[in-house]
Write a structure and sequence with these properties.
single chain, alpha/beta, six-stranded mixed beta sheet, four-stranded antiparallel beta sheet, 37% helix, 28% strand, binds adenosine-5'-diphosphate, binds magnesium ion
Length: 248
């Protein structure tokens, strides 16, 4: 496997007052280039913490994250910001669009940070919006679009700066089934060009879109395998219980 993401013995402990919360415990995980990997697990199992680690948004307590050949845990804040801009697109559960801006302006934002001239920015942003099926909504503000459309703007914005990796945190959890299907179809389309990591607690979604599934429980990686295997014949009891709906 040509691994584009390598997580080595990663732990993350948060301090809240005098208490310690162990959000991730000694995680080892490799994600192959061009794969769709689902991070699956109940609420509080450490999925978002892991995704934030992959994006370099938080420092690990111990262990490392390598993206390609770069150990991002060793980069300075400035280096990390640049690295993230060039290599990683991030899609938020709650869209995080700027309300006063049009779809086009939202998508063009990351290109502004790269110092691209206005004309080029707008052309690229319009192309991205077309790619996510919103070529006819470029002048709409977030409040003038459905949740599913807003999330597709979020995806277009994540892709604007041509990253290799697309990270998505529960991208469809606030959406109705039809909008969810559209997002899943889009994700499948994007697989040709990007490595994609999706966090979800929705096992049907994991089963539908991903090649590989990593099942997390209470900060531990319980099982990581081909999605088919995880759902048809998991080796761990906790995985079995989750995929058969006995808890979740
Ligand atoms: P998930 O995304 O799977 O629902 P999270 O990664 O958000 O889970 O959280 C994992 C654990 O870490 C939870 O117990 C949560 O309360 C805790 N946690 C997450 N973020 C923080 C934080 N910034 N400070 C303190 N504790 C946190
Ligand atoms: Mg989460």
């Amino acid at each position: 496997m040509d691994a584009i993401i390598t997580i080595h013995d990663l732990s993350k402990v948060y301090r809240v007052g005098h208490e310690k919360v162990r959000a991730l415990s000694h995680i080892n995980l490799q994600i192959g280039r061009g794969e769709i990997c689902c991070i699956l697990g109940t609420s509080g199992s450490g999925k978002s913490t892991l995704l934030n680690q992959l994006a370099g948004l938080e420092k690990p307590t111990s262990g490392s994250v390598r993206i390609g050949k770069t150990n991002i845990s060793r980069l300075s804040e400035d280096q990390l910001a640049g690295f993230r801009q060039r290599n990683i697109g991030f899609v938020f559960q709650s869209y995080n669009l700027i309300a006063s801006m049009s779809a086009l302006e939202n998508v063009a934002m990351p290109l502004l940070f790269r110092g691209m001239p206005r004309m080029v920015r707008d052309r690229e942003a319009a192309q991205m919006l077309k790619k996510v099926g919103l070529g006819n909504r470029i002048n709409h503000k977030p409040s003038e679009m459905s949740g599913g459309q807003q999330q597709r703007v979020g995806i277009a914005r994540a892709l604007a700066a041509s990253p290799d990796i697309l990270l998505m945190d529960e991208p469809a959890s606030a959406l109705d089934p039809i909008s969810t299907t559209k997002i899943e179809d889009l994700i499948y389309e994007l697989k040709k060009e990007y490595t994609i990591v999706i966090v979800t607690h929705n096992m049907q979604q994991a089963a539908r879109v991903s090649d590989r599934t990593a099942f997390f429980y209470l900060g531990e990686l319980i099982e990581y395998d081909d999605t088919q295997k995880i759902f048809v014949s998991p080796t761990k009891e906790a995985t079995q219980n989750y995929v058969t709906g006995r808890f979740g």
